[in-house]
Specification:
Blueprint: E1 2-6, H1 9-19, E2 28-34, E3 53-60, H2 68-83, E4 91-93, E5 97-100, E6 103-114, E7 121-129, H3 135-139, H4 148-152, H5 158-192, E8 198-203, E9 206-215, E10 221-225, E11 228-232, E12 236-238
Parallel strand pairs: 1-2
Antiparallel strand pairs: 2-3, 3-7, 4-5, 5-6, 6-7, 8-9, 8-12, 9-10, 10-11
This protein binds biotin (BTN).
Biotin binds next to helix 1, strand 3, strand 6 and strand 7.
Length: 239
């Protein structure tokens, strides 16, 4: 479902999930413009109207909260794969970004929903993919950002770009549905690795540094520090 203007596709989907009795698994809500786009850690997600892809996907699942981050990781693999035929070499960045040469091209925000009456539950995954963002717009963002336009040199049609994501997204989500993070771990680790690379992870005021030791069964990051292997469930990673 395409809308010209919404506050946030995630918020709209969440409200509809709780208010509508019929709510389809696989529903996608996309908006040409979001007036209150949301990012991780209560950040805003700002995107010029008709420029980038802002959409949310509903996945009906009773997977517990601990599995939500790894669904986000599966979605990131889908986005990475969709960019390959466009000549864009992207990599997933733990826990929820897709980067091209250390610049962010896509952010993902997943939220679990649980209907108290119908017992239906699922995950709303919101995807913001920079499609036609210009260099000037990217430079105005406080973190390194890029877009398909910047990487390819040509503008892309938003409908076609959205359609191109469906198949890889469906493939990686199916892998996750069948086997959780272990089913996507090999590809994720190959693309987000290599194992042994030096990382810094900031979670609020706490910064930990060490070597990437791998990813646990729920997608948690394993960091080899001087205190041994530490399990990291959230944070911002830099090299
Ligand atoms: C992040 O990198 O912090 C996550 C950004 C997620 C942005 C998308 S745009 C579509 C969907 N609707 C929202 O309000 N947010 C997500």
């Amino acid at each position: 479902e395409w809308y010209d203007k919404l506050n946030s596709t995630n918020t709209c989907m969440r409200e509809r999930f709780y208010s509508e009795s019929k709510f389809s698994n696989g529903l996608i809500i996309a908006a040409s413009e979001q007036t209150a786009g949301r990012g991780r850690q209560d950040r805003n997600w700002i995107s010029r109207p008709d420029t980038n892809l802002c959409f949310s996907l509903f996945i009906e699942t009773d997977a517990p909260l601990i599995e939500v981050p790894s669904l986000t990781m599966a979605v990131a693999l889908g986005v990475v794969e969709m960019l390959v035929p466009k000549g864009i070499r992207a990599v997933p960045k733990w826990p929820n970004d897709v980067l091209v040469g250390n610049k962010k091209i896509c952010g993902i925000l997943s939220e679990r929903v649980n209907h108290p009456d119908s017992q239906r539950s699922g995950i709303i995954t919101g995807i913001g993919l920079n499609v036609n963002m210009t260099t000037e717009e990217a430079e105005a963002i406080d973190r390194p950002a890029t877009s398909m336009l910047i990487e390819q040199g040509t503008a892309s049609d938003l409908n076609e770009t959205l359609a191109a994501i469906f198949e890889p997204l469906q493939y990686w989500i199916e892998q996750w549905e069948k086997g959780g993070f272990p089913a996507i771990r090999k590809t994720w680790t190959e693309k987000a690795g290599p194992i042994g690379k030096r990382l810094k992870v900031r979670d609020g005021e706490i910064i930990k540094s060490g070597l990437l030791a791998g990813f646990g069964d729920h997608g948690e990051l394993l960091l080899e520090t001087e205190n041994g292997i530490e399990t990291i469930w959230s944070g911002d990673v830099s090299q």
